[in-house]
Every structure is written in C-alpha cells, then in structure tokens.
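Encode chain A's predicted structure.
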Amino acid sequence: GNVPALETDDYRAERVYYISVMTMLYLMNTNLPTMERVVLTGGPGWGGSIMFFWDTTSWRTIGAVSDPEMMLENLRGWLTLDINKIYGRDYLSGNGIGYRYVANYWAIFQMLHEYLVVTGDYELLDEIINGKSIMTHLHDMAYNWQNLSREGEEGYEGDLYKLADFGGDKNALLEAVPNYK
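Encoded structure for chain A:
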C-alpha cells in the first residue's frame, strides 16, 4: 500500500501528517507469532504486544490505504473475540486482553467501515466469522446501544432512557485515570 502525498503550504499540517505515518511505521512489529505484521498501540513501555481497538481507530484511514491486508487480518481476529470483556488483543498469544471498554463497538465498526470504503471489498460482508456474517457483526455493533438501554424497565420511562447505560465502572469509560470524569 501507500499513503497519499499531502499538498499544502502549511508546514505544521504537513509535519503532523508525515509524523503520523512515521509513528505507525515505528509501532509496526514483524516478529510476533499471531500476525506477520501488526501495528501495536500499547507502546514500547507498557503493553508492548497489545493493540487497543480504540487507539487503532485513530489511524484507520492510513491503515486501510497503506496495508489493507494487515487491517483485514486484524479485523477478522477481533471478531473472534468477546469484545464485551476486553479492550484489545495481545499479539503474543492472540487472545483478548484487559477489561470491558465501551468504545469497542464504535471503534471496530469504524475500522470495518473504513476498510470497506477504501478497498471496496464488499464481498467481505458475506464472510462468516463466529457463526455470523460480517454484515451481521456490523449490525450488532451499530445497535449494541439497545442492549445497554434501560428503557421500559420500571422507573426508566421516557426518551432519556433510550440512551445506552454504560454502568458505573469508570475504567470502562476512560482507562487513564479512574477518578477523572
């Protein structure tokens, strides 16, 4: 793959763009047993073999244009995991890692969407992973909020309760600092 050249007179925008590509290359690993190539988002200091779903979303377009094969292999692997219980994948073992993180559904949906838009590989939607088509996985991720809505339960009537209720676990909302709201 490749990334488009950025044409601009704005040095700062150009610097951010090209450093983002360099960062992706810096985080790429080619020596882990789960995949031939993987861009780890856990960083070298902590989680040196981990890819966080939501972090990966921040470079979804660059990933789709520069290495769509790696992106697809990641997505297929992620759909074999129970994303209700983890925040990423460990590429030493291939297993899910961490705890529940509410951004997972949004992140993986965005990654799948970007892969499909950039590659045009719409036949992928019919592929079956864990007993469901990719299209069904996308549908389930888009409508997961309904599984978290308390609407209709006693004491939870009205439009407000149509929203997802992510519960009281602060780590599931923001893993950086538990007392931050």
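DSSP finds eight helices and seven strands in the chain.
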